[in-house]
Amino acid sequence: MAIPPYASRSEIAFHWGQRIFVGLVLLFLVAPILAIMPLSFNSDSFFSYPMPGYSLKWYDDFFTSDRWMSALRLSFLLASLTTVLATALGTCAALGLSRSNLPYRASIMAILISPMIVPVIISALGMFFFYSKIGLTGTIPGLVLAHTALATPFVVITVTATLSSFDRTLMRAGESLGANPATVFFKVVMPLILPGMISGALFAFVTSFDEVIAVIFIAGPEQRTLPRQMFSGIREQISPTITAAASILIVFSTLLLITVELLRRRSERLRGIKS
Question: Are 230 and 209 contacting, i.e. CB atoms less than 8 angstroms apart?
Fold first, then answer.
């Protein structure tokens, strides 16, 4: 926001001081990322500054190693399945919560988003004891269900926010013209809330792709996702290949966040909101 021409000196100082403070906080948060990414191009086998030279051998080791590639494939598989389930369940929940006459709406919402509030290690421990009784530990369905439970709240929140400005008279108009509920949803509701659904799906994908605690508790010894492989690599044998994997995850997550921001702006334009 631009400084008004009639602003006093104290207001100008506060304006620039606020921006400098926010900039320093942002620098503090991204400093670890700025330190890790250059190390992925280090020609030495140790994490050291200054770097003796530059090399792409750690990226070559990442993309040619069966261990890293199998972990990457498993992460993509779990994240894709989790995204489909979490988006479907979260959208259905958000549609139900958008009804003003829903009883105990606040309590239901609190229960649905509780996985975001409860520490992940507590959720993972509870899932482990429950899955061990029904035989889902060490299985792909068990991992997908665990990730879905952790990712669904993000879909619920994003779709609920999109539905907050949704005009429900459009649904009644579609029903008055003879359309069944499924047709009304796919032809009227879904095109308008699609940006929120896609944003929630992207958040669900990132949540599943980056999850490591639940995987440690529930996955079998040979089921290593990319975050778990990185965690094991740090404990067992520190290799600069971990920095290459971390850099790839950082770039991938940044692209997803940019996509979410573009979808948010598109959703605001569809709702007639000017930034």
Answer: no
